């Protein structure tokens, strides 16, 4: 559970409900007059407990990584350029950029098709992701894709988005803070898969 006020409050509420359920069982509520209310109360508390567990699990889940977001944007942008479904392109980008099969980034992702990987290698010249921000402020993510099988007629596609400071990858934030850089550019390694 993350160490946040919401997380602590939920954990505390969950513990109180669990204690109430144990006390109800310990006091043999079911054998006393008016047990219908006791049974309904116990069932209601168990359902509330399950709902709190779902919320706690959502809070404990890691946030969607910036890599997933970038791969998703690129897959959508590549669909009309490459004439391939974005879902196939997404899987190929994940493999080409060195994310191991079954990694936390997308455990249910099937292996990419060789033909899609080869098309990306042939058509995409380079991909960069630039982050511009000041510590704690809103920043900008600029994804730039250079593409074209005929390397003499390379085309460029730029996608510019506002991004919150907390959504910028941790290592980029660290460089911005440590080095005082307001802009950090990363190249996607569309290497071997």
Report strand %.
15-25%
**Oligomeric assembly:** single chain
Number of helices: 6
- Total strands: 4
Largest beta-sheet details:
4 strands, antiparallel
Beginning-to-end CA distance, first to last residue: 36 Å
* Secondary structure: helix percent: 40-55%
Radius of gyration, in angstroms, nearest whole number: 25 Å
Note the run of SSEs as H and E. HHHHHEEEHE
Q: Enumerate the spans where pLDDT stays under 50 for 5 or more consecutive residues.
A: none
Q: Which term fits the overall shape? A: elongated
Which secondary structure elements does this structure contain, and how are they paired or packed?
Blueprint: H1 5-26, H2 35-60, H3 66-83, H4 86-96, H5 114-123, E1 124-132, E2 139-147, E3 155-163, H6 170-179, E4 183-187
Antiparallel strand pairs: 1-2, 1-4, 2-3
What labels would you give this structure?
four-stranded antiparallel sheet; alpha+beta; 6 helices
Describe this structure in words.
By secondary structure, the protein is of the alpha+beta class. The protein has helices spanning 5-26, 35-60, 66-83, 86-96, 114-123, 170-179, and strands spanning 124-132, 139-147, 155-163, 183-187. Strand 2 and strand 3 (155-163) form a beta hairpin. Helix 3 (66-83) crosses helix 4. The mean pLDDT is 77.
């Amino acid at each position: 559970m993350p160490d946040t006020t919401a997380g602590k409050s939920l954990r505390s509420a969950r513990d109180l409900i669990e204690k109430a359920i144990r006390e109800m069982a310990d006091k043999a509520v079911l054998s006393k007059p008016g047990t219908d209310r006791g049974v309904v109360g116990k069932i209601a508390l168990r359902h509330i407990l399950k709902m709190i567990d779902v919320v706690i699990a959502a809070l404990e889940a890691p946030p969607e990584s910036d890599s997933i977001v970038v791969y998703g944007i690129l897959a959508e942008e590549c669909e009309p350029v490459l004439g391939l479904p974005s879902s196939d392109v997404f899987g190929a980008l994940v493999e080409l950029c060195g994310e191991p099969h079954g990694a936390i980034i997308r455990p249910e992702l099937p292996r990419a098709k060789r033909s899609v990987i080869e098309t990306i290698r042939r058509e995409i010249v380079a991909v960069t992701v630039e982050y511009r921000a000041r510590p704690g402020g809103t920043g900008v993510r600029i994804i730039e894709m250079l593409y074209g099988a005929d390397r003499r007629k390379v085309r460029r596609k730029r996608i510019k988005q506002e991004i919150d400071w907390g959504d910028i990858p941790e290592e980029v934030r660290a460089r911005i803070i440590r080095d005082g850089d307001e802009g950090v550019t990363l190249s996607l390694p569309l290497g071997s898969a």
